[in-house]
Every structure is written in C-alpha cells, then in structure tokens.
Specification:
Elements (H helix, E strand, L loop, with lengths): L9 H15 L60 E6 L6 E6 L3 E8 L4 E8 H10 L2 H5 L4 H19 L2 H13 L14 H18 L9 H21 L5 H8 L6
C-alpha cells in the first residue's frame, strides 16, 4: 500500500500568518494628540521645569475657577473661554433647518517666553494668538491682573502663569512695584493672605475646636439684644416725629364741601 502524502491546508496557514502579523503590529493608542506636542524644553539656568498640562503639581495653587465641565479640551490649552457652539443650517429655498456646530480654530504653536528664555509648546486659538500679539507677548498675556483674564486662562494657563512668576525677571519686577507703592519687601516664601480670608480661617478653626470639645455656642448676651431693641424703637419713634400724621377731619376741611352734580 502506497504511503499517504499529507497536504498542508493553505487556508489555515494563511490565517495563522495573518494572526501573527496582527499581533506583532503596534496598535494605535486611544489618544488623539501626540505626546511630542506637549513635550516642553528645559528652562536654561533653572532646575524648575515647565509644569505638565494634566500631571500632578502639588506646589501650584489650585485654579480658583476650576476646570471647564462643558468643553474638556479647553482645560489643556489657551482657548480664551471659547468652546463648541451649536446652531442650524437654513436652506434658502425651503427654510429647512439642519443642526450643525462651530468648533474653535485651534492651532499648535511654540511661543517665546522672555522670562523663561525658551519656547513654550501649547495649543491655543487664533483669538488668544491675536490677544498675545496685542498685549506684547506670552508673559504679558499670562500676567494679566483683571478677573476676566484669569478666567479665560483656564487650568493650563494658570500653571504657566505660576511658572512665569517664579522667574527672577518677574520677581524683580514685582519687587520694584512694591517699592514704588511704598510696601516693604516680600519675604521669601511669604504668601499674600487677605484680612477677610484670615478672619474666616480663624473662625473656622475656632468652630472646629468647639465642635470637637462639644462646647456650647454663645450667640450673644441678653443685654446686647435689649440694647438692640431699644435702638430700633428709638429709630421708629424718630421717624414718627419727623413725619407727623394729619387728621382726617383736617384733610376734609381743607378740601371743602363736595358739590353734587
């Protein structure tokens, strides 16, 4: 009996080759932006790096307005408060409306920072780019003091603002401004705390201590309430004497008798 020759299955061999090729290929990541777009250059003469866009930065104060909850992409760039707008396309013949949207005109740029002496990679809109050209550079845009400017910076602009403020050039500029206003020089590591914030902080600490010790809260003395009631009564009496009431009979006499028609 002649030996049986085994013929290989061409379809199985082809499927095995395809599966091995698929496993060996590099799969595309879920990120839509390349990591090189946010890779910042080192600041010459300083060990403090430019902060990351979304990485942890415990030394930076939190952004007072918080991240944008509507257009999350604006948290990683200089968008100037812009976000996606929605509307309709209306045909001229039948006036049929079709929903559409308008996205911000976003670009990836390298902007020169005078204080950092290096380029800063960022994603920004053309509106912010025109504003930067108008005010005179990236540093002037980031160091704006108006609340509207701080709000449009976003979390990423807030981090860049903090990093620019740590440079010797900006620190010297702030020291000259304090001297021009007659203020004492700021000590190293001193934080600016408003009087109202300090009072609120002390009140919260005192309240927490009393709650922990289960102490009773004293709102005020009885004498204080009595003095307050007497003051209110005096004000009411003074208002009555200032505007005396006119009797009804006096008012009717001034009008005279009515004439019947």
């Amino acid at each position: 009996m002649a030996p049986t020759l085994l013929r290989p299955c061409v379809r199985a061999a082809a499927s095995t080759t395809t599966s091995n090729t698929f496993l060996n290929t590099t799969r595309r990541t879920l990120s839509t932006s390349s990591s090189l777009l946010y890779k910042q250059q080192r600041v010459p003469g300083s060990s403090l790096k430019i902060p990351s866009v979304t990485g942890p930065a415990l030394e930076i104060p939190p952004y007072p307005f918080g991240p944008n909850q509507v257009y999350h992409q604006s948290n990683t760039g200089l968008y100037g408060g812009q976000r996606i707008r929605f509307g309709n396309n209306v045909s001229k013949q039948n006036e049929i409306k079709t929903r559409r949207n308008w996205r911000p005109n976003v670009h990836h740029k390298r902007l020169w920072s005078v204080s950092l002496r290096t380029f800063v990679r960022t994603r920004l809109t053309t509106r912010v780019l025109r504003t930067i050209d108008k005010v005179g550079g990236l540093d002037a845009y980031l160091l704006g003091i108006k609340p509207a400017r701080v709000r449009e910076l976003g979390p990423w602009g807030w981090r860049l603002r903090w990093r620019v403020m740590q440079t010797p050039i900006i620190r010297k500029q702030f020291a000259e401004q304090r001297a021009a206003l007659g203020l004492p020089p700021k000590a190293e590591g001193e934080d600016v705390v408003l009087a109202g914030e300090m009072a609120d902080q002390k009140l919260m600490e005192e309240t927490s201590r009393m709650l922990a010790n289960e102490e009773e809260f004293t709102i005020g003395e009885e004498s204080d309430f009595a003095a307050e009631d007497a003051e209110v009564a005096a004000q009411q009496q003074q208002a009555k004497t200032a505007t005396p009431e006119v009797p009804v009979e006096e008012f009717m006499r001034d009008e005279g008798p009515r004439k019947e028609v």
